[in-house]
Amino acid sequence: xxxxxxxxxxxxxxxxxxxxxxxxxxxxxxxxxxxxxxxxxxxxxxxxxxxxxxxxxxxxxxxxxxxxxxxxxxxxxxxxxxxxxxxxxxxxxxxxxxxxxxxxxxxxxxxxxxxxxxxxxxxxxxxxxxxxxxxxxxxxxxxxxxxxxxxxxxxxxxxxxxxxxxxx
Amino acid sequence: xxxxxxxxxxxxxxxxxxxxxxxxxxxxxxxxxxxxxxxxxxxxxxxxxxxxxxxxxxxxxxxxxxxxxxxxxxxxxxxxxxxxxxxxxxxxxxxxxxxxxxxxxxxxxxxxxxxxxxxxxxxx
Lengths: 168, 124
Fold this sequence. Notes:
The complex is a heterodimer of chains A (168) and B (124). Chain A is of the alpha/beta class and 168 residues long. Chain A has one domain (31-166). Chain A has helices at residues 3-28, 61-72, 153-166; strands at 50-53, 77-80, 95-113, 119-138, 143-146. Chain A is flat, with a radius of gyration of 23 Å. The termini of chain A are far apart. With 124 residues, chain B is mostly helical. Chain B has one domain (2-117). The longest helix of chain B is centred in the first third of the chain and has 25 residues, at 2-26. The A-B interface holds A 1, 6, 9-10, 13-14, 17-18, 20-22, 24-26, 28-29, 33, 35-37, 102, 104, 130-131, 148-152 and B 18, 22, 25, 28, 31, 38-39, 42, 45-46, 49-50, 53-55, 59, 62, 65-66, 69, 73, 77, 79-80, 82-85.
């Protein structure tokens, strides 16, 4: 085999392997099972109303939350604010759906030459929401059953809600 | 015959590990095995693929490139540019299994040479 063909084959192999790894990582984060620890073991047997915490972490979060629960969750649920949670006793409302936002902090430094031998430095730190984790808390035991993190929060939320709905 | 050797080597060291990794991934085994063994077999298979393409001679540029790519891949996951969870243990696992592929390279080179050439194929 010529060296050029080998090089092409090498690049092709590397690309294929990394595409495979990215695809499997995406699937790994969209797999929700009781065995995998993303769904509480008794979730399917419970007839309790699921409490769903609405938040204002970013503008579209509540819109997607409402839409996904309306479209994909056929059991009983109730949208509440975090402050209202204590009004609902754990023995009647055992499970609670919520999410965590992971943030990435970026620091930018700028150096400006003033022209007379003096330089000024300024730095700016910005924090952005980068990925989400969804979870269901068993309020009786206090255990959180979490998904993996994903930057595609609506997709992750939708798939998780569908999996919760399908749990028997 | 060279093609047969090439494909046998590829089946044993690339397709087989990737397939086993895929099966482990879909089986609900314990989470440590499920999270790390498919990744390690993937790293072994990719390193082996490069060795096989270059006739099992170590091509330093591409091997170094792949080792760096493993590290960058995990870093991109840790800063949430790529899907997944960045994990220093994953980097260790990738490098260890790439090391195994490199370490067993001589063995598979000898094994390739042991495959007998049929008389009618040796003339080609």
